[in-house]
Amino acid sequence: MTVALAVLKPAHLLQPAAALMGRLVLGDIGIAGSSDLTEIARPHLPAPGPADHKYTRGHVVVAEGAMPGAALLAAMAAQRGGAGYVTLVGGGQGGPASIVRRAGPLDGLLADRRIGAVLVGPGLGRDAAGRGLLDAALGSGKPLVLDADALMLLEGTGALPGLPILTPHEGEFAALFGTLAGSRIERARAAADRAQAVVVLKGPDTVVASPGGRAAIAAPAPGWLASAGTGDVLAGLIAANRARGLEAFEAACSGVWLHGRAARLAGPGLIADDLILHLPQALGECL
């Protein structure tokens, strides 16, 4: 049997429906709001102030390998993502004149104390030369972002020094960590604990995880990001945020948000170069 109950109020307490619209009431219901899993939201990034200069805004070094175009995309993304100084180490050519090109060797250049982050992997190659560049970065003591071929060269490696940021897609993740059980979030968390690194497991629902179980998941990204070079742009963005002083987890989440936002601004048919053109607007929304 269904019983309908009606609550009657005196006429002077009744309000027109329109009067109740648009009101928001917040109240503590006694349930803790913290969680180890969050959604990646628009970051709040500081704009350069009067006392800032190119090095305080972040100096990013990008190692150039077998495919110079990939490293150039990453370097340009780091610039547009807010870095004040970007050095591209290798023998390639082209790109903005504002990118500083150095011939190397990488290990000698990494002694500069003003370097805020080192990015190795985009277009690196998996030969002895690529291995040498990766080893130089691993031994530098600098904050690291490791992407693409650098991840393949790390295959079988255990805990890494200095809490680097690793940015694998599913194929690179499998090569690096093997078959891990569970959801994408669970696998990213397990990988972060194993490598002692922040892991950015890329995909339509990118997951960022750090050792100890903290994780964040991005809103679904536009399918147009399934295009060559877009991962290089993401790596450059993350490196820029790391170089400006953000902690590794926050730098990764900020880079993921900026990447997705630039993709939505670029629209259908985007290529990696288009993302870079839309980064200033995406960054401006975070200041």
- What's the total helix number? 10
Q: Compute the gyration radius: what is it?
A: 23 Å
Strand order of the largest sheet: 1-10-9-8-7-6-5-2-3-4
CATH hierarchy, class = Alpha Beta
Tertiary shape? globular
Mean pLDDT: 91
The CATH topology comes to UDP-N-acetylmuramoyl-L-alanine:D-glutamate ligase
Beta percentage is: 5-15%
Name of the CATH architecture: 3-Layer(aba) Sandwich
Distance between the termini: 59 Å
What string gives the helices and strands in order?
HEEHEEHEHEHEHHEEEHHH
Broad structural category: alpha/beta
Low confidence ranges: 1-14
Helix content: 25-40%
CATH H-level homologous superfamily name: Ribokinase
The figure for the number of domains is: 1
- Total number of β-strand segments? 10
User: Largest sheet, described in full?
Assistant: 10 strands, mixed
Q: Which assembly state applies to the chains in this document?
A: single chain
What order do the helices and strands come in, and which of them pair?
Blueprint: H1 17-20, E1 37-39, E2 59-63, H2 68-80, E3 85-89, E4 100-102, H3 106-109, E5 117-120, H4 128-138, E6 144-147, H5 149-153, E7 165-167, H6 170-177, H7 184-195, E8 198-201, E9 207-209, E10 215-217, H8 230-243, H9 248-266, H10 272-284
Parallel strand pairs: 1-10, 2-3, 2-5, 3-4, 5-6, 6-7, 7-8
Antiparallel strand pairs: 8-9, 9-10
Helix pairs in contact: 2-8, 2-10, 8-9, 8-10, 9-10
Question: What's this entry about, in short?
Answer:
This protein has ten helices and ten strands. The chain has helices spanning 17-20, 68-80, 106-109, 128-138, 149-153, 170-177, 184-195, 230-243, 248-266, 272-284; strands at residues 37-39, 59-63, 85-89, 100-102, 117-120, 144-147, 165-167, 198-201, 207-209, 215-217. Mean pLDDT is 91; it is low at 1-14.
